[in-house]
Write a structure and sequence with these properties.
The protein contains 14 helices and four strands. With 323 residues, it is mainly alpha-helical. α5 packs parallel to α8, α6 crosses α7 and α6 packs parallel to α13.
Length: 323
C-alpha cells in the first residue's frame, strides 16, 4: 500500500527555507532513481510470476512482503522490469511536467527526487523541490496542472497495453487484496474488447498503471498543497481554504466507510506544512489557463477510487474483530 505522507508532490513546502540558488546534486537524484527502479522491479518480479502461474497479484501475505522469495529468485529479476518501467515512466512524466512548467515561468526547481519504499509499488513516488517562490497565479495553476495531466496521458497508454495483455479466467483466483477499477479502466476496456465483468488476471503493466492512476487522483485532491490544491488556490484562495476543510471531512468519512488510508491523508492535510503559501497576484488568469482547471477535474473523476482496496475500511476492520 502506498505511503501517503510521502507520495504528494511537494511543490511549495521548501520555498521559504530555500531562498538562494544552489547547484543541483544530480548524483543524488540518479542514485534515488536507480534505487526506486530496483525496488519497484523486485515487486514487479513477484507480480509477473504470479501472473504467469494464474495467480492474482496479491494472493497471500507472502506477496505483501516477498523479500525472502525475491532473494531466492534473483536470476529472474528482469521479469519485474515491465512493472517497474511502467510505474517509473508515469511518475517521471508527472514530475517533469512540473519541472518544465517551472522552467517556463523562470522558477528555479530541482529535477525529481524518487523515493524508494516498501510499498506495493516499491516506491513512495517522487518530488521536486522549488528553490524560488511562485509569484503568479498563472505559474501556480500551470505547475499544478501540467504534472498530473502529463502523467495521466502516459497512464492511459500503459493501461491500454496492460488491459490487452491481461488474461480472462474462468474462475476467480484467490486474492488477499482486491483492486477497484477506476472509471478510466471501465471506459477503455470495451474499446479494447476486454471485459471487466468476469475474472481477469491483471498483467503487471496494468497493476503499475493502476498505481500511477491512484497517485494521480490523490495528487488532484483540491486541498492543501497537493496539485489539485495549487489549481484551486490559483482560482480562488478563499474557496481553497473552505474546500480544503471539506475535503478533510470527506476523507474522514471515506476512511471510516471505504478505505482506512484516507484517514492518513486527512491527517496529512491537517499538518501545518500543508498550508498553502500566499501568492500575492490579483491579475486575472488567461482563458487558456482557466481551461486547465476543468481538465484536471475531468482527470480526477476518471481516476478517483473511493475504495482503492476492498474490505479495508474502519467498518470492515471492526466487523473482522467481532468475528
Amino acid at each position: 500500500m502506498p505511503t501517503p505522507a510521502i507520495l504528494q508532490d511537494d511543490l511549495q513546502a521548501n520555498v521559504t527555507s530555500v531562498q538562494k540558488a544552489e547547484p543541483d546534486r544530480h548524483w543524488i537524484q540518479a542514485t534515488l532513481l536507480l534505487l526506486a527502479l530496483l525496488s519497484a522491479t523486485r515487486y514487479g518480479m513477484r507480480y509477473m510470476v504470479n501472473f504467469q502461474h494464474g495467480r492474482f497479484p496479491i494472493a497471500s501475505q507472502s506477496d505483501v512482503i516477498p523479500f525472502p522469495w525475491i532473494f531466492a529468485n534473483l536470476p529472474h529479476f528482469g521479469l519485474g522490469l515491465p512493472f517497474s518501467l511502467t510505474l517509473i515512466g508515469i511518475l517521471i512524466t508527472h514530475e517533469f511536467g512540473h519541472y518544465f512548467s517551472c522552467r517556463r515561468y523562470g522558477i528555479n526547481a530541482t529535477i525529481p527526487y524518487f523515493l524508494p519504499a516498501p510499498s506495493l509499488g516499491g516506491t513512495a513516488g517522487a518530488i521536486i523541490r522549488l528553490k524560488s517562490p511562485v509569484t503568479s497565479r498563472a505559474a501556480l495553476i500551470t505547475i499544478g496542472a501540467i504534472g498530473p495531466i502529463a502523467g495521466f496521458l502516459v497512464a492511459v497508454l500503459t493501461t491500454s497495453i496492460g488491459l490487452i495483455l491481461s488474461k480472462p479466467v474462468a474462475v476467480e483466483p484467490q486474492k488477499l487484496v482486491d483492486f477497484q477499477s477506476p472509471l478510466i479502466f471501465k471506459l477503455l476496456a470495451p474499446l479494447l474488447h476486454v471485459s471487466l465483468d468476469r475474472p481477469l488476471l491483471w498483467h503487471p503493466i496494468l497493476i503499475a498503471s493502476w498505481i500511477g492512476i491512484l497517485l494521480t487522483s490523490l495528487n488532484l485532491l483540491p486541498a492543501g498543497q497537493l496539485d489539485g490544491g495549487h489549481i484551486l488556490y490559483a482560482l480562488s484562495p478563499r474557496i481553497h481554504r473552505v474546500v480544503t476543510y471539506a475535503v478533510i471531512a470527506a476523507l474522514v468519512y471515506l476512511g471510516i466507510a471505504h478505505w482506512t488510508g484516507w484517514l492518513v491523508w486527512a491527517g496529512f492535510l491537517c499538518l501545518p506544512g500543508m498550508r498553502h503559501p500566499t501568492v500575492n497576484d490579483t491579475r486575472p488568469l488567461p482563458t487558456k489557463l482557466l481551461l486547465l482547471a476543468p481538465l484536471a477535474l475531468v482527470i480526477l473523476i476518471l481516476t478517483a477510487m473511493p475504495e482503492p482496496f476492498t474490505k479495508f475500511s474502519v467498518l470492515d476492520l471492526i466487523a473482522k474483530l467481532h468475528h
